[in-house]
Amino acid sequence: MGKLLIVGTVAFDAIETPFGKTDKILGGAATFIGLAASQFKLDSGLISVVGGDFPQEYLQMLSERNIDISGVEVIKEGKTFFWSGKYDYNLNTRETLATDLNVLADFNPIVPENYIDCDFLMLGNLHPSVQMSVINQIPKRPKLVVLDTMNFWMDNTMDELMEVLPKIDVITINDEEARQLSGEYSLVKAAQKIHKMGPQYVVIKKGENGALLFNNGDVFFAPALPLEEIFDPTGAGDTFAGGFIGYLASTHDVSFENMKRAVIYGSNFASFCVERFGTERMIDLDQEEIQKRLGQFKQLTQFEIELTH
Q1: Structure pTM?
Q2: Domain that holds residue 23
Q3: d(CA 13, CA 98)
Q4: 200: Cβ–Cβ under 8 A, 6 or more apart, which residues?
Q5: Helix H segments across 144-286?
Q6: Would you say residue 308 lies in a domain?
Q7: Which residues are 100's β-sheet partners?
Q8: How far is CA 25 from CA 22, 29, 254, 277, in A?
Q9: In terms of Cα–Cα distance, which of 21, 16, 33, 5 is closest to 282?
Q10: Does a structural domain hold residue 280?
Q11: What whole-number distance in Å separates Cα of residue 237 and Cα of residue 176?
Q12: Counted domains in the chain
């Protein structure tokens, strides 16, 4: 079983959807990734930063899930990163109401000594220079480096992002971001272009329409499970990434065949995440539910057919 290091935000979110709204609740990419990956009982650690306003009980909750929080810096006089957003009825488009970087504005990540030899590195959605700083602190390249990014960094820090991409193995982005990064509408062409930028594997998340995995001409598609109730898509992409890398780290197998299974695990976890606001569902999740829903994914995708030549 591999040692996993996760870099990303631990934050507050305030969310409004057609089904309700929340005040400040626990959010952040690293939180969602960590909660999903913790289902695999890994040796995992978080690198992030929070302010003095961040409740100790949240850090305790992460710690109780066997997530090492020694890399989470607490700046007593500072305020925690805060994001607020509002989703329209189809939940695919959202309006950002507030982004307060707070302590994240001057975040200088420091890799804890016991994770300098990590086997798996998950670079959550952050400024590319922060992602690069973490890569540079790890002397021996991990077995697998996965990076998540978004259109904001493509708009504002494209040069820095292009410097990070050759140093990673897998990029996870959504379809809109894949098109922006590559300049191609076709996702097949987009993946080909992104391969040339560095990543050997390209995972394109399509929300309620599933996820695609590309690897030099090979393609795999995982559907999203049709759900009765969807409350809040916030964090679903990060939860997907946590399930994806968590499964790979637990099996220590980074072959294309095993990545297919990892994509299914990621989709499975994301399907739980959207059922409640923020991290609520991921905190309550248990193995029995995970295995039951994996069975539903299997039924959804398995079929017998005879091919005639």
Answers
A1: 0.96
A2: 3-301
A3: 10
A4: 169, 170, 215, 216
A5: 151-156, 158-164, 175-182, 187-197, 236-251, 256-273, 280-284
A6: no
A7: 82
A8: 7, 13, 35, 9
A9: 33
A10: yes
A11: 13
A12: 1
Indicate whether 39 belongs to any domain.
yes
- Judge whether 259 and 146 are in contact, CB under 8 Å: no
Query: Angle at CA 95, nearest 5°, toward 17 and 29?
Result: 80
Domain presence at residue 306: no
pLDDT by position in tens, the chain (length 309): 789 999 999 999 999 999 999 999 999 999 999 999 999 999 999 999 999 999 999 999 999 999 999 999 999 999 999 999 999 987 878 899 999 999 999 999 999 999 999 999 999 999 999 999 999 999 999 999 999 999 999 999 999 999 999 999 999 999 999 999 999 999 999 999 999 999 999 999 998 889 999 998 999 999 888 887 788 999 999 999 999 999 999 999 999 999 999 999 999 999 999 999 999 999 999 999 999 999 998 888 777 788 876
**CATH number of the domain residue 117 falls in:** 3.40.1190.20
